[in-house]
């Protein structure tokens, strides 16, 4: 919450950012002073938590792995893979929980709830256990999320006399409620040794507990056979109760009633059960272990209404929706209850891969999975560092992912060249040429601003941006005219095929080549190149004077370098140049001195050219005898 | 690949470096440093993979890196090198160069020296892109096109090279090797230049010239630890090139290593028939070549120094003209083996370091991988 200073008479203005809002105090009337502060309201604080970042990174890895599962396998082979992926996700959540637990972070409770829901979804939807194994999985689910039983048991066992501990019977009852009968028997054994007088009834209870049948999914026994066996056992326990066999020991009688699944007894122990879903599972265990998935919701509804005392929490309604196999309701409720899209996005994606979501087209054309993934990834993109993860998520949203990525990737702040290179690699791999061009232009402009022409040129070459390359080449040439030397020579020397990107760039490259040839004293080739630059119209007209001036030393050499024909061409170029210069265009702002210099240059050139011409004609006309 | 463990660390890692171990103790390295990038608050951290007798940690199996200490760092960590066993130097994207000291007893890091604007433009910050140290000298290079030499104990820069020569291109990385401080420098343009600097009465003379040029920007370079003329480079096109500096011109061998930029290349410091490369495409490759020499590798080249690490100087005694398998060229392709060292679908691997049998690398997926049983 943001508190404004002196809120009376003040207004609040805001501006949308990417994933956040800037809020500031203002007065909509013009007068008056406002507060100088701007507040930033971020909608998702979770992504900035360092421990949750591990969750995002690890789950990204699992997500990418999931997308690349081969499509051609038949679905019954894929189910164990999906279950193991689901378990991977859950173990990542658990790892985060443990770390948060150590740092006493309140987010732990949210993660606990998330893992609970995910586990249930895995049992009901992904694993889709049939009757018989369904209850076993539900038992596992409950056991996993009720850790205090083990703590209490540890306390009891470590005490001097476990059987006399005040929590002793609580532990035994809890074990039985969770179906952990072997451990219950072990505990009971301790009491039995203490009270040898009651040995008989303890033995009877032990007998009952040991004979309780549990369905073995991998075994040869069919469900019906198991049912029959279970009913026999149930009747035996009932007989014991009717016979008042346990009347002498009140605790054992309670145990017996629990074994029969007596609702009132179970309700009496609601403290030990803790939650309505534990109550549900325990009741199913002792009343109806062969419950079918389709019957589950009926029992869930009934048990929920008998159990609740307090107002329904979001978690309860989500779990209820799960028991009713209403996947969409689960996702919807979770989206509302949680402030981060992580959970719903990943769960929906996994369920979609299991082909459990009907293609439920939303208004704007994409399906639910894609919508959630896009929301999650867009949230990631607002983070200064996690944006890289988001790219993969967009890649796997077939309909709108690319558009989203195109829009978002341009807004990643490019602080260093290395980051720009990585962003560019992402764009180039996906053939996003518009974005490539715009990123390269940003980097090139930055380089230009810092007078690093070579770097700017290489960025524009990478973007294949001809217009910008032309601009930078102009700068190079201007620099040359001003300073007399080139910067970044090695780049220009080795442009290779990139030289053809723009005319000006080609000229730059060739001009530099001329200089190199001149430096290596390969005058004839240099001369030829120089001439071709003008005659082939590669050189811009504005530069011709410089080129002709460069030709001067070649003309002044003792040895004849330009042939007569070449000299004629040079003269032609000079005439073209002077005639265009003489046209009274906007040259009126040229000072007198500049005009003088120009005239002198032209004079010198004419003189040199005519002298060269003379020598060339003589040389060519001479016949060697 | 079974020996490699991922540790998620909530920061994108740009550099990982083993803390140098004393050669005489024949230990495997246990402590490494990492630098982060692209965070609002970047950090330099020290980790340990040794057994913790004193901390009584039950969780995390043996070899799981545990963080010992960290220190905030302004700007992305663009390079990180150890000066000696206690001091490390970092190059920052703000243009700063900082020397940190790690105190192993108290597990803290303190800043020894900080040169805030080692590299800068007139109106902006210029990232310092790479550095190399040979104690006590530190040579850094930055995007502004200058090479600056610092001394660890002095306040200001000892020497600035760069603007004097108009031929200087924005260099991006260099590594200094051997007594004659040799730079192999490449820039993001198609350029690779090398200069020989004879160390003369404590003063460094520089003379830089181009040896060879390559058609794509280069990002990393490393020299063979024993045979100084062999250089391996990697760049934007992901190709691994091995060059012979004496010949220049074209690379001796050109191998398609990665499908994206190669960020680091490293010869194994004691067993140079092995080479490691890591890349933007998320793979880390281990290259192994069969050596033609019959002499066992520990007899090749001299190693009288007491510290082994990648930036350290080694004396010039071991400069024997042995033919190395890296110079086989194309005919040697048959004797080159490559193995992937990381599980597939990792994000870009930004950095790696290897000493002995221990390999550490850091990724953009905010994970560190440590392998203690690299087959070298």
Low-confidence stretches of chain B: 52-60, 163-210, 292-322, 330-334
Secondary structure category of chain B: mainly beta
- End-to-end CA span of chain A: 104 Å
Biggest beta sheet summary of chain B? 4 strands, antiparallel
Helix content bin of chain B: under 10%
Count up the helices of chain A: 30
> In percent, how much strand structure appears in the residues of chain A?
under 5%
Count every beta strand of chain A, where a strand is a DSSP E run of 2 or more residues. Answer: 3
Classify the secondary structure makeup of chain A into a structural class: mainly alpha
Number of helices of chain B: 0
Task: Determine the N-to-C terminus distance of chain B.
Answer: 14 Å
Task: Write a concise keyword list for the protein shown above.
heterodimer, A: 625 residues, mainly alpha, 3-stranded antiparallel β-sheet, 30 helices, 66% helix, rod-shaped, B: 376 residues, mainly beta, 4-stranded antiparallel β-sheet, WD40_rpt (chain B), WD repeat (chain B), repeat (chain B), Nucleoporin 43 (chain B), nucleus (chain B)
What would you note in describing this structure?
- The complex is a heterodimer of chains A (625) and B (376).
- Chain A is 66% helix and 3% strand.
- The termini of chain A are far apart.
- In chain A, α1 runs parallel beside α17.
- By secondary structure, chain A is mainly alpha-helical.
- Chain A contains 30 helices and three strands.
- Chain B is mostly beta strands and 376 residues long.
- In chain B, the strands form nine sheets. Chain B has a four-stranded antiparallel beta sheet, with no helix packed on it.
- In chain B, β16 and β17 form a beta hairpin.
- Classes of the chains: A mainly alpha (625), B mainly beta (376).
- The A-B interface holds A 50-51, 53-54, 57-58, 60-61, 64-65, 68, 98, 384-385, 388-389, 415-419, 421-422, 425, 429, 449-452, 454-455, 458, 485-491, 494, 496 and B 8-12, 14, 37-40, 59, 76, 78, 93, 121-124, 126-127, 143-145, 166-167, 169-170, 188-191, 193, 210, 213, 215, 217, 236, 260-261, 280, 345-348, 364-367.
